[in-house]
Amino acid sequence: MPNISSVGEFLLLAFADTHELQLLHFALFLGIYLAALLGNGLILSAVACHHHLHTPMYFFLLNLALLDLGCISTTLPKAMANALWDTRAISYQGCAAQVFLYVFLIASEFYLLTIMSYDRYVAICKPLHYGSLLGSRACAQMAAAAWGSGFLNAVLHTANTFSLPLCHGNAVDQFFCEIPQILKLSCSETCLREVVLLEVSLCLTFACFIFISFSYVQIFRAVLRMPSEQGRHKAFSTCLPHLAVVSLMVSTAMFAYLKPPSISSPSHDLVVAFLYSVVPPLVNPLIYSMRNKDLKYGVRKLFLYMPLKH
After folding, report:
1. What does this protein do (predicted)?
2. In this structure, what is the dihedral angle of CA atoms 72, 103, 244, 250, given to the nearest 10 degrees?
């Protein structure tokens, strides 16, 4: 059995070998980060400031924008700092905090996307019951359940992962600390609990995905039966962005975790992790605002009223 050593810091995977390329990556990440902050910040401001957007759908969208901001702020700033200062180090406590926050936010986001599919299902398939099923109190409770479930998930996974002894060094083959990469450093016979916990989480995620899929089967059946073309267009314009966000998140994460080991390599895993951890927070605001006239109107009003308030 390899020697069990205490670790004071971890070494993250660098995006490039030379400092010049690292600086180029820093500039790219900075642009992506600022674009994500701007897009999600505009959604938060538009929903918070305009009364006509104070509906369940936009309440959940506001929560999604908060989670997206948290997700990208958990991973990208440290990668930017490492690229700027040409280092790979992250402290043990910083790594644990990164794992906790990322699991908390990404789990909460997926549970919230499941709730959002229920919101669209009730709005289109049971419109007469919408007010009673999705009142302000019910919406607040569902959002709190999503955040609370994500928090519980993060506590269990982080406590379990960082209680494991490490036998295989401190080099993490990823640009941020994530559980599968840390498990590779642990003693194989001691990480069984965390593997089982991950499998339970994957089963729960799959159950949420089945619920979302079932909701959308019912939604599309109801939409196709609508006599009005305008009604169908409005229904699709509120449903398709949510479906696109779910598809992007699930497809990239499934490819990352379920791909065969034969096509796995550090550089390949780096690109895939970038796709599922950085791209969704960046493109979600674009996806939601592209076909949503109310949201675009709210964002335009923000820019129109800014000079007047100044």
Report:
1. Odorant receptor.
2. 130
Half-sphere exposure at residue 255, Cβ-oriented, CA atoms within 13 angstroms: 17
**Distance, CA of 147 to CA of 106 (rounded, Å):** 10
**Topology (CATH level 3) of domain 9-296:** Rhopdopsin 7-helix transmembrane proteins (1.20.1070)
- Is-contact 287 246, C-beta < 8 A? no
pLDDT digits (tens, 9 = 90+) for 198-244: 778 888 888 888 999 899 889 888 888 877 777 777 777 777 777 87
| DSSP-assigned beta bridge partners for residue 5 | 166
In whole angstroms, what is the distance from residue 171 CA to residue 74 CA?
A: 19
Domain range list for the chain: 9-296
Q: What is the DSSP letter of 185?
A: T
- Token pair 């990556």: residue: 25
Question: What is the CB-side half-sphere exposure of residue 249 using CA atoms within 13 A?
Answer: 29
